[in-house]
Write a structure and sequence with these properties.
The chain is of the alpha/beta class. The protein has helices at residues 5-15, 28-39, 56-64, 79-86, 101-106, 108-128, 162-181, 207-216, 236-248, 268-278, 304-310, 318-335, and strands spanning 19-23, 43-48, 69-73, 91-94, 133-139, 184-190, 193-194, 222-224, 230-231, 234-235, 254-260, 266-267, 287-289. The model has no long low-confidence stretch (mean pLDDT 94). 43% of the residues lie in helices and 16% in strands. Helix 7 (162-181) links the parallel strand 5 and strand 6 (184-190). Helix 2 (28-39) packs across helix 9 and helix 4 (79-86) packs across helix 6 (108-128). It has one domain (5-335): Rossmann fold.
Length: 336
């Protein structure tokens, strides 16, 4: 993954030789974050229970950089495993989560345990190892169905699913640990992240990954609802960039909350048609199923706070990101 040239020197100056912990580092966003951290010279510890990922990509990183990346297989609900992974960490990136609205509807208690209680355990581990900052992967789902667009961080939060509620709880916990213990914390509200290596093999998989797999197989993508719901689809490289900038920021960031998105909205039907064109399947039309509980109608990021505080600016258009995603998906299908 290529970082913007104007940011590389600054980020390398901060991360080179830095000890970091990435929770959920075997997952989709976590794996891309680990790639970037290793390329910037950081020493990376990863904890992941592999419940929603595989160790394959991390293993390839470890093979090349065995002295700078370490993997602990374990749950963030296991204090011993967390303490082992966090030892010596100066910066903690907390991405581990049960990350699906529909799955949280089916498994609310498990979602809360991992996403909320797990965050307490990570914050305590960060405090115990005297980490300088914790960066939390929050979610735009906390805004719920507030009709005001674009979403700004000052809007009321109205979670519509156990997943959204658990992510909001994580934000509150980071702010409390900042106030009570002086731990520098920041929550990044990601908006619909997509890109290569995102799994499409689950009933709870994200829409871009599922559409790509369907289209390459010559099948119609399935849309839940009327397709007019809109999303701010954000390429994974931009999510990683925002996350790295948050970790490296010289600001105090005592419980700060910021959106990470593109400021561009697209309906799910428009997405399906655009992907069909770019996958070489322009005649494949989507089919429609009843909408799912907990899904919000519209979502669009105002990332002014991240721009002003972190210097964040999205670098990839949705078209560029979709091309990379489809290309990767084709390579996986060709190898299977």
């Amino acid at each position: 993954m290529r970082l913007p040239a104007d940011k590389v020197n600054k980020l390398r100056g901060f991360y080179e030789g830095r000890r970091v912990l990435v929770t959920g580092g075997a997952g989709f966003i976590g794996g891309h974050l680990c790639d970037a951290l290793v390329s910037l010279g950081a020493t990376v510890a990863v904890i992941d229970d592999l419940s929603n990922s595989t160790v394959e990509h991390l293993a390839s990183l470890i093979e090349v950089e065995s002295e700078r990346i370490r993997f602990v297989q374990g749950s963030i609900l296991d204090d011993e495993a967390v303490a082992d992974a966090a030892e010596g960490a100066q910066t903690v990136f907390h991405l581990a989560a049960l990350g699906s609205v529909p799955k949280s509807i089916d498994y609310p208690q498990r979602t809360w345990s991992v996403n909320a209680t797990g965050t307490v355990r990570i914050l305590e581990a960060a405090r115990n190892c005297k980490a300088e900052r914790v960066v939390f992967a929050a979610s735009s789902s906390v805004y719920g169905d507030d009709p005001r667009m674009p979403r700004v961080e000052t809007l009321p939060t109205t979670p519509m699913s156990p997943y959204a509620a658990s992510k909001l709880a994580g934000e509150v916990l980071l702010a409390v640990w900042a106030r009570c213990y002086g731990l520098s914390t920041v929550s990044l509200r990601y908006f619909n992240i997509f890109g290569p290596r995102q799994s499409a093999d689950s009933a709870y998989a994200a829409v871009v990954a599922v559409f790509a797999r369907k289209l390459i197989a010559g099948e119609s993508p399935v849309i839940y609802g009327d397709g007019r719901q809109t999303r701010d689809f954000t390429y994974v490289a931009d999510a990683v960039l925002g996350t790295l900038l948050a970790g490296a920021s010289g600001q105090e960031l005592q419980g700060a909350v910021m959106n990470i998105g593109t400021g561009r909205a697209m309906s799910v039907t428009q997405l399906a048609r655009l992907m069909a064109e770019r996958a070489g399947r322009p005649t494949l039309q989507p089919t429609y199923e009843p909408e799912r509980r907990g899904d919000v109608k519209h979502s669009l990021a105002d990332f002014s706070a991240a721009r002003e505080t972190l210097g964040f600016e999205p670098t990839a258009s949705i078209e560029e990101g979709l091309d990379e995603t489809i290309k990767w998906c084709r390579s996986v299908v060709a190898q299977s």
